[in-house]
């Protein structure tokens, strides 16, 4: 099979972790006789510096003419403390999600047996955790009406959802639940927010079409608490954009390192695969960042292209590297650690 994959390395540690994913994917492609045509394109602060825009049209063209997009990270500290910056790297990510119609963000959270004691949570609570968030990604407060009034002294961001937006996300949730343990949790704040009441109403209606799925409805604040107490109670969770942003960062703690959790953003056509961590500017250029979240995101990419064996190959070698202690310093706990590039080389050689 010939694959065209847009390669958006982005900022900070993005290029370093992306390089490792490329090594591993190339090795997998070779093993299974595929040919990957990588198509690099600019995004984030790197794109602002080069062309003044975080998601240039040319990058969009590259994405839509590819089979999938592999993405590193974006964000740069020089924008974070400058509220007046007109163009920000994050706008590139939001524009990309919107223009590519990526309305569903799939964020799995699972534990690795060899890392169970790296988690700050107790072993007996987290053992066997295997849950998936489906976060709505192109609506809600991220894309609602916003502005300033009162000479700039009042600011607002509005959270708007349509029934159709909720339905298409929830449909993916029900379908995923049917393939897994037939358990779905709708996370909202329906005791306060009107948009949440529309979520709940819509999901309740849809539940009639999936009689086998047991659906629970929980408030986001309660989920925030229960998620780290009893993660095994959950399987598939669906939620709106900002609740999902917050809860998935929280959930990543369960696995022991944010550097491990992959994600897929899917929707109308091609998918985008990216680690859930950010650009980690403090580590940029030091060859110390954990590349596994990006490499596991590449496994999700293969899965979505119906290349399940290829995906499994990646997951198996990642497990082997963890079991053998071939890990970056975030997981080494003072023991021997490997450079980002060494982990990539080790994995690629193992394929
Ligand atoms: C994420 C990130 C983004 C988000 C930022 C960088 C805009 O935190 O992918 O979770 O809030 O969606
Ligand atoms: Mn986030």
Polypeptide structure, described:
With 351 residues, this protein is of the alpha/beta class. It contains 14 helices and 12 strands. The strands form 2 sheets. It has a 10-stranded mixed beta sheet, sandwiched between helices. It has a two-stranded antiparallel sheet with strand order 6-7. Strand 6 and strand 7 form a beta hairpin. Helix 1 (14-31) crosses helix 11, helix 1 (14-31) packs parallel to helix 14 and helix 2 (44-51) packs across helix 5 (89-99). Bound molecules: 3-isopropylmalic acid and manganese (II) ion. The site of manganese (II) ion has 2 residues, from helix 10.
- How would the global form be characterised? globular
Query: Taking Cα atoms only, what radius of gyration do you get, to the nearest Å?
Result: 20 Å
How many separate domains make up the residues? 2
β-sheet strand percentage? 15-25%
**What is the CATH domain class of the largest domain?**
Alpha Beta
CATH homologous superfamily designation of the largest domain: Isopropylmalate Dehydrogenase
- Overall residue-averaged pLDDT value: 96
Low-confidence stretches: none
Adjacency order of strands in the biggest sheet: 2-1-3-12-11-4-5-10-8-9
Strand tally, please? 12
Q: Helical amount among residues, as a percent range?
A: 40-55%
Order of helices and strands: EHEHHEHHEHEEEHEHEHEHEEHHHH
What is the CATH architecture assignment of the largest domain?
A: 3-Layer(aba) Sandwich
EC number: 1.1.1.85
Binding site for substrate: 97, 107, 135, 221
GO biological process, one term: L-leucine biosynthetic process
Pfam family, one: Iso_dh
